[in-house]
Amino acid sequence: MKALVIDCLQDAISAAQFDPFYINREVLRQQLDLEVDRIAAESLGAIREEILPDSVSSVFLLPSWEEAPAKAERAVESIRKAKPERKIFFIDPFSQASTVYFAVLPYVDRFLKRQCYRDSEDYKKNYVGGTMLTNFLVNGWHFDLNGWHLGSEVPPGYKDRIIPGWNLGASGNFERLLLNYAPPAWSDCGRDIDIFCRLSLGPRGKQEWFYQYRVTALQAVQTGIHKYKIVASGGFDETKPASQFQYYREMKRSRIVFSPFGWGETCWRDFEAVCYGCLLVKPSMAHIDTQPNIFIEKETYVPVRWDLTDLADQCSYYLEHPAEAAAIVDNARRVYRTYFEQNEFVNFIGRLINNSN
């Protein structure tokens, strides 16, 4: 069998989305008899049937998030009509559980999200701003979204095609770091930073709800927790709060990593924290389904309320109960390693290409 990944995004996110195919290419070939190629395209609308030979039985579409939804729908419909028996998998480019592309659902076998709502009924709800998070920020914290909205209606009868694919944590960089780096013990004296939270605030000239939320999260750390050593700051995309080298060096020295939501619920920091043996503290992920799943409450991470009112108490508790913190850290690393050691990405692709209808 032959599969083709058509990448219209071509940035760090799309590289991470394709990376599991690359690092597992031999296992995919041996276990599934599957060869995977990757090509670039300017847009979904630029895809022509001649680049999809008959030998390609499955197509994975990775569009740019800037592609107009109506154009994406027409393009995917055209690809489906050209060869109805070919399987089509749409890899959504948005980090949110929502998307602007649900209109393509009738033309794809599965719609793959980095993270999706655990309860598919949530896709029927009319969230302010299009997401559960923005809905909370408006109704709970009275944020003004200034018309920002990221969502689309799920066509009736197609919500079961929305499934969790794989998140950024499935990339080879994290696999190598997790399996090859032995972090110091959680209570080691070398971990001289109690709580770490360096954040990007987005572009300086576009301070939307994302900026407001991140600033509020930083304030919760900086003003709510006093007796511990805290490294927390925010910077715009143009002026990072720390160099990449400094960021990782500080994280290695940290006991707790607080990781608030970003544009979506998951982010690079979540997986970095587990790789470096830190205790991940994060707003509750109980509403999200994602793989690899390092978000098992009180087992692999510590959840806090979305309004962050219990953040100080939760951080203080685990800093004062190091054995409990270390147990969660160890379990998170075990669960994360298991994802790679059991070839869960390959198993998922196998189920996808053999069972989707």
Detailed description of the structure:
The chain has 357 residues and is of the alpha/beta class. It folds into two domains: 2-147 and 157-169 and 342-355, 3-Layer(aba) Sandwich (Rossmann fold), CATH 3.40.50.2300; 171-341, Rossmann fold, CATH 3.40.50.2000. Helices cover 36% and strands 18% of the residues. The protein contains eleven helices and 13 strands. The chain has a six-stranded parallel beta sheet, with helices on one face. A five-stranded parallel beta sheet has the order 9-8-10-11-13, with helices on both faces. Strands 6-12 form a two-stranded antiparallel sheet. Helix 5 runs parallel beside helix 8. The protein is globular and about 65 Å long. The model has no long low-confidence stretch (mean pLDDT 94).
Stretches where pLDDT is under 50 for at least 5 consecutive residues are none
The residue fraction in helices comes out at: 25-40%
What would the average pLDDT be, to the nearest integer? 94
CATH topology of the largest domain: Rossmann fold
First CA to last CA: what distance?
17 Å
- Strand order in the largest sheet: 2-1-3-4-5-7
CATH class value of the largest domain:
Alpha Beta
Number of domains: 2
What's the overall geometry? globular
The secondary structure category is alpha/beta
Secondary structure tally: strands: 13
Radius of gyration: 21 Å
| CATH homology superfamily of the largest domain | Response regulator
- How much strand? 15-25%
Largest sheet: 6 strands, parallel
Specify the CATH architecture of the largest domain.
3-Layer(aba) Sandwich
> Number of helix segments?
11
H/E element string?
Answer: EHHEEHEEEHEHEHEHEHEEEHHH
